[in-house]
Specification:
Distance between the termini: 38 Å
CATH superfamily: Immunoglobulins
Number of strands: 17
CATH class: Mainly Beta
Strand content: 35-45%
CATH architecture: Sandwich
Radius of gyration: 18 Å
Shape: globular
Order of helices and strands: EEEHEHEEEEEEEEEEEEE
Largest sheet: 5 strands, antiparallel
Length: 256
Amino acid sequence: MRTIRILFPIFVASVAMGMNAQSNPVVFESTDRQAALLELFTSEGCSSCPPAETWLNGLKHSPGLWRQFVPLAFHVDYWDYLGWRDSWASKDFSDRQRVYAESWRSDSIYTPGFVLNGKEWRDWSRSKDGPRSSGAKAGVLKISSGDLKRWQVSFAPSSNAKVKYEVHAALLANGLTSDITAGENRGRRLNHDFVVTVLAKISLKIEDNTCKGEIFLAGTGNRQSEGNAIVAWVTRVGHLEPVQAVGGWLPEQALR
């Protein structure tokens, strides 16, 4: 496990991209039970990360995928100075991990680092099929799109309390491969799944006890991906912990 100290607080920034148009609407909808949000912070420049990514990649075959949990892999950029620049890394993702660490009152961040439902999670290697849902009632989260660019979001919370929510959405690339020629992983071929390539968020408006909004993801699918996916999750405004999450594989046309 590689660790780096936090020098100063930075807030999360959003990016926006998207995918090719579809003729038929694509819909993903959760149950009213909370699905776990699983985040991995990783880097191609970190020699400790491949085992964690191998474990995460294996979750593609888990029966709980998209039902019990939704996974994301954020590639951070703070190890790029070691001699290899991670093509999938973003300063925004490093900043996201810093915000988490600050909420835990930690003065350091590290890779590989797992976050489960907004909390640091170190027991990932003991979970063969990934984390399970807590079973708590959270509400139903639904996202739908006819063009894979504009996604309609609807969240009906289990509680009728007038709480303000925001939705986060990420596009994921799968089947990525990198041949590392420098740095700690020199000479290795690394395989990546659930890689976050796009991240955006918006605030939701309350309409008749349902929170609604439209989130825009613009751009094209990653040509190196063997199966793009989308993940969305809602949080209370000003909070990191997810309330509900949903996700799934996008149709093959999204890659064209």
